[in-house]
Amino acid sequence: MKAFTFFTSLAVALSASSGVSAAVLGAGGSLACNNEVVVSETFIGANKDVKLTTSHCGDAPHVNAHGKEVASLSKRQANTTATNVCGAQCNTFCFNPSGNGPNEDDCKIIADALLYDSQNTGPLFNISASGSPTDKVTMQYGSCQTYFLNQDFTDLTYCRSDWSSLVNWLASDCNGANNAHGGLCVAADQSWYVQVQHI
Length: 199
Known about the structure:
Elements: H1 9-18, E1 23-25, E2 34-44, E3 50-59, E4 62-63, E5 69-70, E6 83-84, E7 90-95, H2 104-120, E8 124-127, E9 136-141, E10 144-150, E11 156-159, H3 160-173, E12 182-187, E13 192-198
Parallel strand pairs: 1-7, 6-11
Antiparallel strand pairs: 2-3, 3-9, 4-5, 7-12, 8-11, 9-10, 10-13, 12-13
C-alpha cells in the first residue's frame, strides 16, 4: 500500500494504541453544507457514472487542523495565482459512532473515476477560492459521496490521484469496523479538506 503523506503522529499513535489509524470525531457526524448553490453537474469516469458537482456553500462548514468545526478560520494573505496543494499533508479524522457509512465498493468507483480522469483529462484540477461560486467539488456514486472544500482565500490546484487515494483511505479506515461512518482529511494549514460520507 502506498505510504500517504497525510499520516500524522496522532494517527500513528492511535493506530498503535487502539487499532484505529485515524482520530475519531465526536457524535456530531459528518459536516453539512448549508445553503448550497449548485453551479454545474456532469458525469465522469470511464462509464460516465460518477456524478461531479461544483457548488458553493452559503454557510461553509470550516474545519481546523484538529478536525474541529469552527465558525471561521484566520485570514491568510490571498495569492493571485492558484496554490498547488498536491501531496500536501492532511490530518485524518473519522466520524463516530459506527453505522450507515458509505459502501467501500461505491467509493472505489469514485476513486477509479478520479484516476481515469487523471489519465484522460489531466492529473490536476483547480478549485476556486473560498466564498466563490465553485469553492466545493463533490463526487457521488451509489452510497458514497466525497467532496473537496477550499477554505482558503486563493484558488487551489489539487491532484486527482491524491483525491483518489484519500477516498479509498477514508472509506476503508473510517468504516463501521473502526467504529466510524465516514471521515475527513483536513490540510495541515487548514486551507482545504476532503470528506467521504454516506448519502
